[in-house]
Each structure stands twice: as C-alpha cells, then as structure tokens.
Specification:
The complex is a heterodimer of chains A (459) and B (175).
Chain A: H1 2-11, H2 25-37, H3 43-69, H4 84-108, H5 118-139, H6 165-198, H7 202-212, H8 219-252, H9 264-290, H10 299-329, H11 333-344, H12 348-360, H13 368-371, H14 374-401, H15 416-439, H16 445-458
Chain B: E1 3-10, H1 13-25, E2 31-34, H2 42-45, H3 53-79, H4 92-119, E3 142-147, H5 157-164, E4 169-174
Antiparallel strand pairs in B: 1-3, 1-4, 2-3
Helix pairs in contact in B: 3-4
Classes of the chains: A mainly alpha (459), B alpha+beta (175).
C-alpha cells in the first residue's frame, strides 16, 4: 500500500518549488529593495497608475455629488433601500479577508509559500478594508454624522443601539482595519530597516529611518518580535471569521425573505475567501510578470491560490444549494416565492450570470494545466471577481424587492452614480496598490531570506 | 570616545550560534547578536529570560473586552435604560459580540506596544551603527557584539577569542 503510494508520488509531476533557482541574502535584499529605492519604474507602471488615478478623480467627484445631492442620487428606493453601496461593501470586505488568511492562517500553519506573497496580500487587505469602510458611511443619509455609531459623549447624550448588527459591524470593521494595520506594519519593520540602510538619498533615509523605529535585527528583538507576531496572527484568525460573520448578520437579523437564513455567516466567510483569492491572483499575476520576480512568486503560489479558490468556491456552491433547498424545505410560501423570483424575476439575468461565473467557470480550476496557465488563470480570477460582486448584489436586492406583500414589490434601477462609485473605488484601490509597490517593499525580504536559509540548511 | 564593545561578523547563522555559545561558556554575559532574520534559539543562548509578552497580550485582551462590556452595561442599565416591551436591559448575547471585537483590539494593541516597549523601540541612536563592518541591510552577515561593560571584557583578549571562534572581521565599536 505504502509502496503503491510512493510509486504514484514518484510518477506524479513534481510540484513547482516555492522559490526557483539559487539565491543568496544580499541578492534578495538588493533586488527587492531596488524596486523601491531606484525609483526607475517602467513606463507602463506610471501609465497604469495614471489610468487608476483618473478613476480616483471619478471617485472623488461621485462622492461629492452623492453628499451634495443625497442618497437618492443612486439606485435605491423603497422597497429596495439597500443597493450597490451594501453589496460593494460586502465585496470589498471579502477581498480583504484573503490577505489576512494568507498572512495569519498560513503563518500559524507554517506554510513556507506564504513568505513572498504575504506583504502585498496584507496591503491588499488594508486597502480593501479602507474602500469597504467608506461604503456604509456613504450609504448613511448624512455621512458626516457617521461618528454617532461610536459611543462618544455628544450634545444629544445618546448611545449607540448595542443590539443592532450595524453597530457590531462598525466595531468589527474598525477593529479589523486597526489590527490589519498593526500586523502589516509589524511585518514591515525589519524590511524598513533594510530600506533605511540601503537608501542613498537623505530624504529616503529619513523617511525609512523614522518608519523603521530603530530596528537593527538584534537577537533579543527578533525573539520578542516572533512571539508577538505569532500571537497577532492567532488573534487575526478568529477576527476575520467574526468580521464576515457579523457582516452576514446584518442581513440575517432582518426577517426579509432571502435574508433570514442561518447559513449566511459561514457561507459569507467562504465567499470572502473565494473573491479574496481571486483578487490576490488579479494582483499577483501582473506583479510577478512586471517586476520579473517570477522566481520568488512562483507557479507554486499561483497554483496554491487557485486550489484555495476552488476549495472556498465549493463551499460557496454548497451555500447556494442549501439556501435554495431550505427555502423549499421550509415550506414557507414567501421564501419559496423569493427563490423562484431570483431565478425568473427581474434580476434573473444577474443571478444566472453569477451562477455561471462562480459555479461553472470555477470548475476549470480542477485542471492543473489551467492552474499553471497564467493568462487563463488571470481571466478566471477576473470572472470570479465579477461573479462574487453579482452574488452580493443579487442577495442584497432580490430579498427586499420581493417581500411579503405583492403590493410592496418593486425594483431599483442603477444610476451612473452606482457605477461611478464602484469603478471609482476600484481605481482608488489599484492606485493605492501602485503607490504601495513604489514606496514599500512588496515582498517580505526577511522571510524570503529565512526560507533560503532553511532550504540551504536542508540540502 | 568611549568604547561600546567589540563586534564580530560571521558568515552564517551556525557559526554565529556556536560562537555565542562559546562566549557564553567563557562567562560573558553582556552580549547581543544581529542577524537579517531570526536565528532560532540564539536569544536563549545569549541568556534572554522567557518573555512575558504573551501575558501582556492576554491582559490587553481581557482589559479591552471588560472595559467595553462595562461601558455597554453602564449605558443600558444606569445612564439610559430603555424598556422595550419588558425585554431585559442586560441582553448579553449581542453585547458579547462587541466585547469580543474589543478584546481582540485590546490584545493586538497591547502586543504591538508591548513588543516595542520591551525592545526599547523606537530608538533614535544605537552605537552598533557606528561599526563600519555592520550592515543590517546587506543581509549576508551575522554579528556577535560583546559589550565593553561586560565584567569579563579585556581589550585584546576578547578580540582574540572572537577571531579564534571563526569571525571574519572583528571591530571595536565606539559608543
């Protein structure tokens, strides 16, 4: 039995290595920091940045318009009072979760392949959470009063409604953003020390020197650093699950058909991972190609991310199935009608496109040749991104549009502002990613060096 | 100029670990080591006591959770009780959700601040950067520093001992 397994393993195609080729420490720290310090980025980098920047301007314009005109300016109405603001919020938060999974969960599981992708995955988390956080605030009728969600002493002498999931949501997102920032900055500290010592110009030395807080790689520091870093990872893991579960509770607390379901928290978490890994691939595939770091971010990373996508995706498909099953099994006419309306009602095209993207296209990832083919993998990642956005939109709007009384049925129509804000936030997100690549090391220097040391020690 | 100590560079982590152990056996106590990434077990060899940081993190978590729970309790029981259809004012299930988030936040903040405090960071100046052979950034070298304040430190003797342990370069560091 064991022999048969061993024989099969020998025959199998060898997996791509975590790092390709031979490396030494000065070469690694030099190459990674050169991306930042030389400042000679290819012309297409800036071209792409300026395209994104145009969308940043669109974002600013849309937000200004929204605040000056009011929330009626985008496609919400009674009965569908939750629109793209809520679906985009859930989508962005979900994207953030994959970054935390890579950096925290894979650290706890001691997966060596996380080392070269955790930094930009964490940055992705941070920027995605920043985008997500804006949406519910803009969705408020008077966004400038968003701080009323905080228990602050103000002239009204009121308190937040602690029993409301929206207040939990605020606590969860604020905590998640803060912990992600701390975890990211802590991971950056040793690398900022490298940049400080390698920087040639005075402003760069000052900038990285202040940020590095005097890090010098002392053995005592490393030991404490490691202890706290692992503890932070252990804290971030339940945090991620709690954040998206709370986001799901925003829906399940309502008795609206299509919202009121116990499957939502786990199913939302799985959906978050699926869309998050799709976004990791969306960033990683161009990144490794553009900066010629294909030997550090290898096919192994791409393949593992694709495998995690299909694992999370199958849970999402199970979620779709059980949602439909329980609507039918409950025997409740309203739940059944809502499910039927999803499939044949006004939003049916979106529903079927969503199923096509998330259920059918996803299955291609079972094939190893697809997982290793970058253009195809990139296209699949984009399709899943779209599919997951549609999923959230379908969930958000179909419930309220078809609730208990046919007299209160109604649809919403999207306006240019829905798209202005959605594409504006996408542009802002990518512009931030570009700036991050320009200013901070996108690959964790010290962890890659550790990996090389472990490899040479084993050989 | 006073002397901070003497710093020796080694080619790889194993050489550094062995040298640290040998110097420790010779009775040196005030030593530090520098590496581009963590060399496992080195801090213990250099005599670092078990860190109490996990307790700091736990304390931060408990404090964060309790504080926020107490705040909620104060607001619903004392400051602004609202009776909604006779439901209990102290509805603990929703309150624990917020207290959980606050606990995570407290623990993470305590861990980060505690790590910086225990490590004496941020620090504007450190003598090790005066050493010409010391570069944290190049990443290829592993350093052992013996402080001049060590009772066993003897000019020349310590340098010789480090050279015999296989150091590539040995340099005196000014404070």
């Amino acid at each position: 039995m064991a022999e048969a397994v061993a024989a099969r393993a020998e025959k199998a195609v060898p997996r791509a290595p975590v790092l390709r080729g031979r490396h030494d420490f000065p070469e690694i720290s030099g190459r990674i920091s050169a991306i930042v310090l030389q400042g000679r980025l290819p012309r297409f980098f800036w071209a792409a940045f300026f395209v994104c920047f145009a969308f940043v301007l669109l974002f600013l314009y849309s937000i200004t318009y929204l605040i000056s005109v009011g929330v009626g300016a985008y496609g919400i109405n009674i009965p569908v009072a939750w629109g793209t603001m809520i679906s985009s919020f859930v989508w962005w938060i979900g994207i953030g979760h994959a970054g935390t999974l890579i950096s925290a969960v894979l650290l706890l599981l001691r997966q060596p392949w996380r080392a070269s992708i955790n930094r930009f995955a964490e940055a992705m988390t941070l920027f995605a959470v920043a985008m997500a956080g804006l949406y519910p605030i803009l969705h408020l009728g008077r966004p400038w009063f968003f701080y009323w969600l905080l228990p602050l002493p103000n002239t009204h002498m009121h308190w937040p409604q602690w029993r409301s999931p929206l207040v939990w949501d605020f606590a969860a997102i604020a905590t998640y953003a803060t912990v992600s920032l701390l975890f990211w900055y802590m991971g950056l500290l040793p690398d900022l020390g490298v940049l400080r010592d390698r920087a040639k110009s005075r402003p760069a030395q000052l900038f990285y020197g202040i940020l590095a807080l005097g890090w010098r790689g002392s053995a005592f520091h490393w030991a404490r650093y490691r202890t706290v870093y692992f503890l932070m990872a252990a804290l971030a893991t339940p945090l991620v699950v709690s954040v998206h579960s709370i986001v799901a509770l925003d829906f399940t607390f309502a008795i609206t058909p299509g919202y009121h379901s116990t499957i939502f928290p786990p199913y939302f978490v799985a959906g978050a991972l699926l869309s998050g890994f799709a976004m990791v691939l969306t960033i990683a595939i161009p990144l490794r190609w553009a900066f010629a770091v294909e030997d550090l971010i290898t096919l192994r990373h791409m393949e593992n991310a694709a495998k995690l996508m299909i694992a999370a995706g199958m849970i999402v498909i199970y979620g779709y199935a059980s949602e439909a099953f329980f609507a039918w099994y409950s025997g409740q006419p309203y739940e059944r009608a809502m499910m039927a309306q999803r499939a044949v009602g006004p939003y049916a095209p979106l529903f079927w496109i969503m199923l096509f993207c998330n259920c059918i296209v996803l299955q291609l990832l079972w094939l190893r040749s697809v997982r290793l083919n970058m253009p195809i993998l990139f296209s699949i990642a984009l399709i899943i991104n779209v599919g997951m956005w549609l999923e959230r939109y379908v969930i958000v709007v179909t419930g309220p549009s078809r609730d208990y009384l046919p007299s209160s049925w109604g649809e919403q129509s999207l306006t240019w502002l829905d798209f202005g804000i959605l594409f504006g936030s996408l542009g802002t997100f990518f512009a931030l990613v570009f700036l991050f690549i320009r200013i901070l090391p996108a690959i964790t220097i010290f962890e890659v060096e550790e990996l090389i040391e472990e490899k040479s020690g084993a050989a | 100029m006073s002397l901070h100590g003497v710093i020796a560079a080694f080619a790889d982590p194993n050489a550094l670990t062995q040298a640290a152990r040998a110097m420790r056996d010779k009775g040196y106590r005030r030593m530090d080591a520098f590496s581009p990434f963590e060399v496992r077990g080195l801090a213990e060899i250099l005599g670092m006591p078990r860190t109490r940081l996990p307790w700091t993190v736990l304390g931060g978590g408990i404090a964060g959770g309790l504080l926020v729970y107490a705040l909620i309790l104060y607001s619903v029981e004392i400051d602004y009780p609202v009776n909604v259809g006779g439901r209990p004012l102290h509805s603990w299930p929703p309150f624990t959700v917020i207290a959980f988030e606050a606990a995570i936040l407290g623990a993470a903040l305590a861990g980060f601040v505690g790590m910086l405090r225990a490590n004496g960071l941020p620090r504007y100046y450190h003598p090790v950067f005066n050493a010409k052979t010391f570069t944290y950034a190049q990443g290829g070298k592993f350093y052992l520093l013996v402080e001049a304040a060590d009772p066993r430190y003897r000019k020349g003797v310590t340098k010789g001992q480090l050279t015999r342990l296989g150091a590539e370069t040995v340099e005196e560091v000014e404070a």
